[in-house]
Amino acid sequence: MVKRSSYWWEAAPPVTVGEVAPVPAKADVVIVGGGYSGMSIGLFLARAGRDVVLLEQGKPGEHASTVNFGAAGRTIRPKFSTLQEQMGTETAIRIFTEAKAWMEFCFAFIHDEKIDCNVQRPGRLYGAHTPEAYESMARDLELQKKHIPTDGFMVPRAEQHTEIGSDTFFGLHVLADVGQLHSGRYFRGMRERAEAAGVRILSNCRADQFRRDGSLHTIKTARGTIQAKELVLCTNAQTGDQDSLLRKFRRRVLPIYSWTAVTEPVDQKIIDAITPKGRMMLESVLLYTGLRTVDEQNRLLVTARHLFHYPNVEDVARDVKAQVAGILPDFDKVKISHCWDGSFALTFDWLPHLGFDRDSGAYYQLGMVGTGVPSTVYFGWKTANRILGRTKDSETVFADRPFETKPFFHGGPHWILPLARTYYRARDNGARDRALKKYGRQTRPG
């Protein structure tokens, strides 16, 4: 029987906090959204002496923060060459440099706060689905090396079995310094420290209306009304449409639906055959398959079937397993114990966003583009410092950039997503199939 719940919840289930506490009349800062972003901003502000109230419509952390892949890296979705062409070399350098900075900030935060979340840094590899994808990654890596330090390296197809048990890839791009962690225990540690610092967390307290009166924000909830000097939105893929302020940002984030699964404990020989060096695996296709180890119980964790909806968990577990085994044949030998769905938020420029909305006077931190595990605590530090007036420590290239939307897009589930899924899967799988037909599969060494 496959459990339809996050594996991370086994050790650290989301809990309700302050569900019966009265909504206070006033606070220095009200934060809407109780995931990594809201919790980290609240923690840093409370430690600086601010009275912080955090409103969460359900249980803190129950959405993207504890249903994710647990990757802690420095992913920037656009290529360096693309950003260089669109924004100039200096900005491209700053973006990639800050991605490295958010990863190191996250690891330092976990270490300094002594959060037990099984953090590791085995590295990550990207499998090229065609020879052209491999050459493109190689060219972009060489361009990066001309401008920024990087420990990334390429592995040609003839040598890829030293890194991954797949015969479908056409070479690999490896990042040796990135990591992974236990998402549930990481969030629990962050929440506990925020509570200890004095953040008043109110579970099951949805913010329904926002009004700005001079220097004060008035936030109406089903449990009462609160006024605050500062308002911060951290609703990400869960941004609602019950108020014009939320609708404004809902139009700027695109919730992407995906499935994650964890296996039963696996024989170490199978793990070694699939990932000889224990590195996390992703693909060069848009709707990628991802895999990593969960070393505490010798399990494997995978993500797949993006933008697919299933009513039955057994069906999705079957299809997830088939998708992964199509790339990693040894995965066909394992059994899935947990399978769950969740949403993360893309933006139309494929970059994270934080800043200050002059029309409403609200700060925002949302649209993390799948980087939320490591990036949000770094951005939370930046946003908190901005509210505190600490200019130097608040600077980031990601702040106050144009936050794009598209005509006729109003957020939430959208008819275009199934069409996009069909198009990108056909494009990428077709390219892979043609390449395999032309060049064949990579034979494993005897």
Explain what you see:
The protein has 11 helices and 18 strands. It is of the alpha/beta class. The chain has 2 domains: 1-120 and 179-253 and 348-413, 3-Layer(bba) Sandwich (FAD/NAD(P)-binding domain), CATH 3.50.50; 124-176 and 255-346 and 416-439, 2-Layer Sandwich (D-Amino Acid Oxidase, Chain A, domain 2). The strands form 4 sheets. Strands 1, 2, 8, 9, 10, 11, 17 and 18 form an 8-stranded mixed beta sheet that branches. Strands 5-6-4-13 form a 4-stranded mixed beta sheet, with helices on one face. Strands 14-15-12-16 form a 4-stranded antiparallel beta sheet, covered by helices on one side. Strand 9 and strand 10 (216-221) form a beta hairpin. Helix 1 (36-47) packs parallel to helix 5 and helix 1 packs parallel to helix 9. The longest helix is centred in the N-terminal third of the chain and has 25 residues, at 89-113.
